[in-house]
Amino acid sequence: MDLFLQTLLNGLLIGGVIATFTIGFQLTFGVLHVIDFAVGGWVVLGGYLAYYMAAELGLDGFLAIPVAFVLFGMIGYLIGPVLYNVRNSRTARPELMALALTFGLFTLLRGGMLTAWGFNTHSVPTALSGESLSIGPVTVPLIRVAAAAFAASIAGGLFVFLYRTRYGLAIRATAESRQNAALMGVNIRRLSANVYGLYAGITAMAGVLMGAIYSVNPEVGLRYTLFAFFVAVLAGLGSVGGALVAALLLGVIEAFVSTYVGSSYSLLAIFGTLFLVLLVSPRGILQRGL
Amino acid sequence: MMSTSRRGFSRRQFLGGSAFALAAGTLGMPFIRTARAQAPTFKVGVITSLSGDNILGGNLTKRGYDLWVDAINAKGGVEVGGDRCKVEMFYGDDQSSPATGADAAERLIVQNEVDVLFGPYTSGSTIAVQPICQKYQVPMISGSAESPNVWKAQPEFNFGIIPAVDTTAGKSLAVLAKMSNPTAKTISVIGVNEPFSKETGEGFRDGAKEAGLNLVAYELVPAEGDLTPVISKIAALKPDIVAVGGHEEPLINLVKTSKSLDFRPKALIMHYGVTDPAFAQALAADANGTCGVAVWLPSVPYKDDLFGTAKEFAEMAQKKSGHEPDYTEAACAASGLVLGDAIKRLGKKPALKPGDRVALKDAIAETDIHTFYGPIKFERKGDHYHDNIQPVPVLIQIQDGKTVAVGPKEAAAAALTYPLPTWK
């Protein structure tokens, strides 16, 4: 029973960790209609920023969270219009062009990080790194709790923002129909820039936590991109709420299969679940978008 | 209307000019190649991971190979019949993928016309490149591959400097078990599910019985997976020793995850990665106490004419890269010593003809030298065919951020810390 409870907690926390970098990915798809291959690049950049601040300035990794949001939010804001132009160009298959652009951006980010920080694997020290709390038979890793809380608060904050503010209404209107939103006076180009900036900022903040939980090197970005994509497909592309549910589901499946069947079967179980959900409910588990 | 000449370039002129430049460049290339081929230079191809998941190890192997080429070229090149011929390196990136490694090898052989290859960082890529070496009859000296599967197929053209992990992991585990006080009784083994790491795990698993340890769990984990479930599972079994096969990134994640779950066995032994200074740097104080296996340390009592003593080699490497070299970097540098010795005995100047390359392969097989890395002599039969299993593994432990030899007794520079203190 002790192991069962620990496994359940592990699974929920793995899900919370994955959700941190998937929520923004979903928002971008919902509004810009772009599958952003660069998501893993933003995650790792956030991790490197925290590593830099800790190693060079002697600051706690957590202090990098607001800096990551502002810095990468601004960079994302500048990139957003480029992505918007490509996605809405009159060339054949603009959706593929946009995918290629984000793939190029990912390659550029990866190469840039390699040049700037080299190939060694680094870690981000924080006040909660390695800290745990024992509650009965269960050990609670605090850094992962912080990541799950971060994911929940970002999802909650986005929910309030999208459903309780006028700008959120404009974002949802744009996600539903760009043409109609534009006719209602929404500046789609500026909105796209804002959304991509918001996404890049949120994802880089998640990267600080990833660097603290796991480690940072330029090559781990692809892994985050793939996980974000799996979760997004399972959730239904564009569904922010679904991302949280799907990430938790995948986390729990991974934990239980690893513990009770064997770790080598965990990815098989994840892909099997993805396949089954696509077969039964191709629009994702919540069957709705943004 | 403005004339074209006044505007500078018309689009047609620009395209025409570009096409001409491209054609001239392409046509000119064979002349460049011929000019280079006429110089008495040995061409050595290096296949390694310069991008992808194994970029750290890939660059480490490259550093080792480069140390040799810089040292030998500083002396005028490799000795051939009383003369010296310089060495030119050509690099192929396997992108941490075996299939890409095979493509890179073929490109180096066919396009760059290399005389010999230095092998990849990973065993997976090494196995993928072996058929290419066989097809084009080009010898390859591997300074990094440690998987026993690399040698089981008895590759005719491939030679390995580092002993296969099945000859080292179990021995080191036995040393650890013997030195533990109170005596360790149980062990759990984790292997990352990719060729080298899995076979390292198997080496620990098989070695556990010989070491008199009771194996309570053996787990293979995917490289992309989260480690909390497997660590919680193993923590519940309370093993005295946890042994892990993996590369540096999963090893770092494993220590971090173990600490976050407040689990620390009495001893944690890993294989490759611990000896790389980046491991201790990433984990800071949390790296202390982690054991590893090394087949070479700067303190070993070996020397040769090119690099001098092991300590002098380490100082040279440190000066060049800013890092203390580990055994893979040393073995890669030693690969060059094997090549230099074989070329000297072969007595053929570059470029080597196909028959010469076969003769070079035979000369490499006859290697029996002593280097700063230790003795090098390749097996001629059995499961470790063409592998150098001469070096004796040393049990190391990170103490105060430094890698120190702790066993066997005759090699120990410090006492083994056992049992490890709890995290809190």
Largest interface: A-B, 47 and 40 residues
Q: In CATH terms, what is the fold-level topology of chain A?
A: ABC transporter involved in vitamin B12 uptake, BtuC
Distance between the termini of chain A: 39 Å
At the fourth level of CATH, the homologous superfamily of the largest domain in chain B is Response regulator
Order of helices and strands of chain A: HHHHEEHHHHHHH
- Overall mean pLDDT of chain A: 92
**How many distinct helices of chain B?**
14
Rounded Rg of chain B: 24 Å
- What oligomeric state do the depicted chains represent? heterodimer
Discrete helix count of chain A? 11
By CATH reckoning, the class of chain A would read: Mainly Alpha
Distance between the termini of chain B: 84 Å
CATH hierarchy: architecture of chain A:
Orthogonal Bundle
Inertia-based shape of chain A: globular
Bin the strand percentage of chain A. under 5%
GO biological process, one term (chain A): amino acid transport
Keywords (chain A): Amino-acid transport, Cell membrane, Membrane, Transmembrane, Transmembrane helix, Transport
InterPro entries (chain A): ABC_transp_permease, BCAA_transport_permease
Pfam families (chain A): BPD_transp_2 (PF02653)
Summarize it.
The complex is a heterodimer of chains A (290) and B (424). Chain A is mainly α and 290 residues long. Chain A is 74% helix and 3% strand.
Q: What would you say this structure looks like, in words?
A:
- Chain A: Its main location: membrane.
- Chain A: Belongs to the binding-protein-dependent transport system permease family. LivHM subfamily.
- Chain A: GO terms for molecular function: transmembrane transporter activity.
- Chain A: The chain crosses the membrane at residues 12-32, 37-55, 61-84, 96-119, 139-163, 193-214, 226-253, 265-286.
- Chain A is globular.
- Chain A contains 11 helices and 2 strands, in the order H-H-H-H-E-E-H-H-H-H-H-H-H.
- By secondary structure, chain A is mainly alpha-helical.
- Chain A has a single domain, classed as ABC transporter involved in vitamin B12 uptake, BtuC, CATH 1.10.3470.
- Chain A has helices at residues 2-32, 39-57, 64-87, 94-117, 142-164, 166-176, 178-183, 188-213, 221-235, 240-260, 266-280; strands at 132-135, 138-141.
- Chain B has 424 residues and is of the alpha/beta class.
- Chain B has 2 domains: 40-164 and 326-377, 3-Layer(aba) Sandwich (Rossmann fold); 169-270 and 274-298 and 393-411, Response regulator (Rossmann fold), CATH 3.40.50.
- Helix content of chain B is 43%, strand content 20%.
- Chain B contains 14 helices and 17 strands.
- Chain B has helices spanning 4-7, 11-38, 55-74, 98-110, 123-136, 149-152, 169-179, 195-210, 228-237, 248-260, 277-283, 310-321, 327-346, 354-365, and strands spanning 41-48, 78-80, 83-93, 116-118, 140-142, 158-160, 186-192, 214-221, 241-245, 267-270, 291-294, 303-304, 308-309, 368-371, 374-377, 394-399, 402-407.
- In chain B, strands 2-3-1-4-5-6 form a 6-stranded mixed β-sheet, sandwiched between helices. Chain B has a 4-stranded parallel β-sheet with strand order 8-7-9-10, sandwiched between helices. Chain B has a 3-stranded antiparallel β-sheet with strand order 11-16-17, with helices on one face.
- In chain B, strand 7 (186-192), helix 8 (195-210) and strand 8 form a beta-alpha-beta unit.
- The termini of chain B are far apart.
- The A-B interface holds A 2-3, 6-7, 10-11, 13-14, 17, 114, 119-123, 125, 129-132, 134, 139, 141-144, 213-215, 217-220, 223, 226-227, 251, 254-256, 258-259, 262-264, 266-267 and B 51-53, 55-56, 58-59, 96, 193, 219-222, 224-226, 228-230, 232-233, 236, 248-249, 252-253, 256-257, 259-263, 278, 281-284, 286, 423.
